Amino acid sequence: MSEQQAKLSKSEAKTYRVQGFTCANCAAKFENNVKSLPGVQDAKVNFGASKITVWGTTTIEELEKAGAFENLKVREDKEKSVKREPFWKQKENIKVYISAVLLVISWFLGKQYGEEHIFATIGYAAAILIGGYSLFIKGFKNLVRLNFDMNTLMTVAILGAAAIGEWGEGATVVILFAISEALERYSMDKARQSIESLMDIAPKEALIRRGNEEMMVPVDDIQVGDIMIVKPGQKLAMDGIVIKGTSTLNQAAITGESVPVTKTVGDEVFAGTLNEEGLLEVKVTKRVEDTTLSKIIHLVEEAQAERAPSQAFVDRFAKYYTPAIIIFALLLAVIPPLFMGADWSEWIYRGLAVLVVGCPCALVISTPVSIVTAIGNAAKNGVLIKGGIYLEEAGNLKVIAFDKTGTLTKGIPSVTDVVTYNGNENELMTITAAIEKGSQHPLASAIIRKAEEDGLNFNDVSVEEFQSITGKGVKAKVNNAMYYVGSPGLFEELLPNGIQSEIKEQITTLQIQGKTVMVLGTEKEILALIAVADEIRESSKEVIRKLHQVGIEKTVMLTGDNQRTAEAIGKQVGVSDIKADLLPEDKLNFIKELRDKYRSVAMVGDGVNDAPALAASTVGVAMGGAGTDTALETADIVLMSDDLSKLPYTIKLSRKALAIIKQNITFSLGIKALSLLLIVPGWLTLWLAIFADMGATLIVTLNSMRLLKVKE
């Protein structure tokens, strides 16, 4: 948000949907027209999402007047989208059909009676007027204001063609230009559909219980604290917490995961997810505008308005390029006849062909269509990319750094091995769990979970004289015997002769595997070893392998764990580098070092304690965004599921988008250069010029649409 808009945000900002944008230039022009309306302090158009935000006061009628040059339709943001007619039935396309028929009839008349015949000329003139009517209005208005855009160039070229008697070519240019505009509209609508499909995911009303009464309530009227009843096969309309029932929910709309997730009392659920089995009662926790789905839609729309570096370059280029083409066309039409005695009509014709081929249409659309398509595709697959700049940066990545705990691992320690030396395993685990019940240590919770899973009756064991031994462990009396639970170091001090060598070897073996070893024993002997480890996520190894496969040169694991544990996990996962014993500020400094060395570095974390490192990286990637607002706010790319499996897809999509943007820009400029070279031998005709321009626009657009096909 600009400083100006920040100041204005205190005054009323209102967002409207706009229908009918054909190109980024028209959007910019509409924005300027709205800014000059009385009562409007500022306005910002989001071309990708087809929206305008207005600071100040105005009406829909005023806004539509400001967009009359493009016949724009404006509606309130919250209103349901108007169903567009099928492409072939749209009013603006019907006049193209009529013109095309007139053109063909006139061509036959020209063949029959000669090109100069009055019937042929009238037919061509009618085709020009019907097909180019709206184009001429825009072109003349711009000409008066000396605003040279595409419409101005086309208007001058077509009228010039008619003036020198090239009626047939003028009519062909009008029709080809109208077709190119229709195709551009069609492709932008197709790219925007990804967002519109997100908007229709959640129902617009829900069954709510208030007191003893059940009623259908529109989502705008549902309050926080209402009880929502969701039957099997229905979608959830609001975010909330399950207060009754158990069911499996398909969360693909939010997280991109196709495997349904079981939800029961106390679990968080999201609007737009599908209840597959049981009846659920859900307490609503957020208003409709604050739901996770609303946030996703808002962030995706904001992202599509962010200009990518290549788009900024293209816009700057087009700003100087269009006037340069006009001057060149003018000089080409005037200098040879004036100074070399050449034929006026031939050189005016060549000048007009330069005007037509010079349209920066394909070039201007080359980047936005790719970005809108890629970001929309990503959102449907459970990945939020917060702008074209991050899409491009992700495509350039060489190095990805991962936080270990909660990212590559599950972040929940669990018991992996129990080695007993004297006594029954269940008995010893019951004693350990009974003692650890009084401890606050994270490893204690792992032991208690294991005892619960094994159905051990540890709650009935009476524990006396419980005492914590700082940094080493705990001790307590069970059945009148004193037991100790703690680190191997505690028992080195406790036992008269230290730990026996074979037990030491066993401890070392477990530690090399990346496990933390806890020991249960008395002052005389060791009874059992309990190994606890933070389990690796099932997907981590495969994700790292795929990242190396798609061309990431280096993957680094960052952790506060000791070197031995870190290396064990790093080797299992397959990362190329491991950095252990790091404090949060060490992670931050290490990311800065990587940036200095490789320029483009991503940091992947769970978005809470990794915020500084996420901010310092070129691209911060947070996972588990569906549950945490912090991740949605701080990261540049958010994986909505609590899983890394979408990361290789994101890199693949970004690389493909980057490649397509480069192809589009190169192709657009190449076609222009080639067409301009055809002027020298005089081969560039008007219809060939518009064909080159239209062909380039169409190819660039279709090339961008390939991004819809990128799958996991």
TrEMBL record:
GO MF annotations, alphabetized: ATP binding; ATP hydrolysis activity; metal ion binding; P-type cadmium transporter activity
Reaction it catalyzes: Cd(2+)(in) + ATP + H2O = Cd(2+)(out) + ADP + phosphate + H(+)
Membrane topology listed for this record: Multi-pass membrane protein
CDD domains linked to this entry: HMA, P-type_ATPase_Cd-like
Family per record: Belongs to the cation transport ATPase (P-type) (TC 3.A.3) family. Type IB subfamily.
TM regions (residue ranges): 94-110, 117-136, 320-340, 352-376, 665-684
Localization, UniProt: Cell membrane
Domain of life: Bacteria
Entry protein name: Cd(2+)-exporting ATPase
Gene3D superfamilies: 3.30.70.100, Calcium-transporting ATPase, cytoplasmic domain N, Calcium-transporting ATPase, cytoplasmic transduction domain A, HAD superfamily/HAD-like
InterPro entries (UniProt xref): ATPase_P-typ_cyto_dom_N (IPR023299), ATPase_P-typ_P_site (IPR018303), ATPase_P-typ_TM_dom_sf (IPR023298), ATPase_P-typ_transduc_dom_A_sf (IPR008250), ATPase_P-type_domA (IPR059000), Cation_Transport_ATPase_IB (IPR051014), HAD-like_sf (IPR036412), HAD_sf (IPR023214)
The entry's keywords: ATP-binding, Cadmium, Cell membrane, Ion transport, Membrane, Metal-binding, Nucleotide-binding, Phosphoprotein, Translocase, Transmembrane, Transmembrane helix, Transport
Keyword DNA-binding assigned: no
HMA domain segment(s): 12-75
Isomerase keyword on record: no
EC number(s) reported in the record: 7.2.2.21
PANTHER family in the cross-refs: CADMIUM/ZINC-TRANSPORTING ATPASE HMA2-RELATED (PTHR48085), CADMIUM_ZINC-TRANSPORTING ATPASE HMA4-RELATED (PTHR48085:SF5)
GO cellular component: plasma membrane
